[in-house]
Each structure stands twice: as C-alpha cells, then as structure tokens.
Here is the input.
Amino acid sequence: MIKEFDLLFIKERRKEMGKTLQDMADSLDLKNASTYMKYENGEYLFRAVHLPLLAEQLECDVGNFFAKNFAKTAKRLSEGGY
Here is the structure.
C-alpha cells in the first residue's frame, strides 16, 4: 500500500480551522508566512519534527497527512509489480 503526503488536506484543513499562513509559520518556528507557503505548496518538504506540530495546530492525527495513492498502486499491479 502506497501512501503519499497529502498537502491538499493540510491546506484545506488550515483554511477550515481559520488559521493563516503566518499562524502556521509561527507554530513551526519558520521565518515567515512565505516560507510556510512553500512547504504547503510542496516546494519544500515538511520534516518529521513538523508533523506533530502540524497535527496539533490542525487538530487532527498525523495519519491524516497521508493519503493512499490508489492510482499508482493499480498501475504497478497491472505492470506486474509487487
């Protein structure tokens, strides 16, 4: 089972919670909102130490940040992978 980091979940959950980019930057001890936005947009990769802080801010479990990627799994299986 392949899981990918779900940046869309993070972005949508942040908006649902009414948190700004700066709120999130502050919670992760990042320089500014622009830096956080690069993480949320996938230009930078979130580090493992960020995950519990993100989960706390977004009031969710770390597991919510990972989505099963069924398309890639199906493709690999059809190609004889696994």
Notes: Confidence is low (pLDDT under 50) at residues 72-77. The domain at 3-78 is CATH 1.10.260.40 (434 Repressor (Amino-terminal Domain)). The helical segments are 7-16, 21-27, 33-40, 50-58, 70-78.
